[in-house]
């Protein structure tokens, strides 16, 4: 299905379904000529305009060569017409923007263009980077980051090792093993020859992009190294650079708080299953959340629940443990404090309880989804199981047992019909679904 233009955008681009994204006056552009039919129609140049505010790196070539740049240049991503009704920014800096994506320019599917940090955090980050070098209020962000001691170590490194990510704010890098960091390099999609654990094929710019993304928001990296195609509960990665990401579209869980009882039961059941897979999986990684809210999880249009925002997801390698040197915490540098300031030290890796994600979800998410949905005594049993599951003072076995009891209560409340396309019609013939 071809995406449609708004009235103003259509008048700007007659005969062409091109859409415009104007992000900032400070920009770099990848432009292509439209194809007007008669000579009476003036030639119109359409631009995909990426500014410092959106990218986070201010040089035009910062994103050249990345998959996202290529997709925009080949017009495999076209923005929703609501963004292009005027030549300017949307009225408010939104956390995400709807768009359409195609592999063949014929079949289109919805995607999201997401900010990895808010507009306010971006402004703070810019000022902090400039201030770190005693530069004026506006400065060349890329030039300053290239001169830092951390990046100079990255330039010399042949392999991504724990000392190179020490002190970065992402929970994902709190307890790094060499096995996990090798997976990052081997599966990093923004280099030409992915597959090696060594960084010999990384250019200086590749290394800066990877370091910058890990420091700002590791969500795009997690989508690449634990892809949904391999069964991980994450949306498909389509590209990223700087402070923005393109991925498959999901609706946040908060939009389903008023869902029908059978749908609420299905989503809650899926969510508990996702947390179970994060605790125990074939790769022997223990994933845990440091924070959850109604936007952490999302739903595809087939009813399947996924992790929509993995930025608060930590990982502990149960096979190798953490190779971070004990007591070797570096002094905070500009990469440690790019977004929200230098954070307080996190607890030791061996102090993260197995129940942590369950407690957070049972306290902050599931009550909103399941409250008052079912007749008594079923609702009473669900509320009791939720209360036990969200009890932080309880030992791990009690919390895990309460979650298992909650899944048992929810399972028969789910229905089997086409609304749940991710498991229909399999659910008609197999109790597993």
UniProtKB/TrEMBL annotation:
Subcellular location: Secreted
One protein family per Pfam: PIP49_C
Chief subcellular location: secreted
Segments forming domain FAM69 protein-kinase: 211-390
GO CC, any one term: extracellular region
InterPro entries xref list: DIPK2A/B, FAM69_kinase_dom
This protein's UniProt keywords: Kinase, Secreted, Signal, Transferase
Signal sequence, start to end: 1-34
Domain of life: Eukaryota
Family label: Belongs to the DIPK family.
Protein name (record): Divergent protein kinase domain 2B
Encoding gene (name): DIPK2B
